[in-house]
Amino acid sequence: MFTEMKRFAHIAFITLLALTTCACNHIEDKAKALSSEVKEQAKKELKAQSRKVVDKVFPPFDYKFPDTEPNKARFKDFLKVPLTEDIQNIYCFDDAIGINASYMFSFNCSPTTSKNIIEEHQLGLDTLNNYNAFGLQEDFAWWDKNHIAQLQKYSWTDGNNYFKYYWYDAKTQKAYFFDFDL
Known about the structure:
The protein has 182 residues and is of the alpha+beta class. Helices cover 45% and strands 21% of the residues. The protein has 2 domains: 1-58; 69-181, no CATH class. The chain has helices spanning 2-57, 69-79, 111-120, 145-149; strands at residues 88-95, 102-108, 124-125, 153-157, 162-169, 174-181.
């Protein structure tokens, strides 16, 4: 009977050792998985926070695709009117490197929104309508200078080399906004 008890104790010890080893391996695997998940989440959070800092210093403009989140954000920043459902096909471009900066926006909107933009920026009808600063503007399919030249321009200046030009085509409900300094 003593040998059976010894044998039972030996089997129990081996079983306990096996279970402990399995449990430790399971805990180790869970710890590694959790550690990996925490590291991945930290990387994502760091990347998101870094992006926010970079976006504040160098806000993105997407001239290749309309209605991107950066374009909608820049629209709100520059046009300063609510982004309503009638505002679509928002393209924008910036050239802020160097001593002067320029920002181009093209979008579709209703006549009401166009009127709100004119009022918000205190734009006046440019009766001369001759200098459109096309030399400062880039060439894009969404920025048709020949067509813009045919439209009536609204403008504003602070009197110190800062300008805003705005054109609106009532037939196509297409707007063009150019913000620049010299």
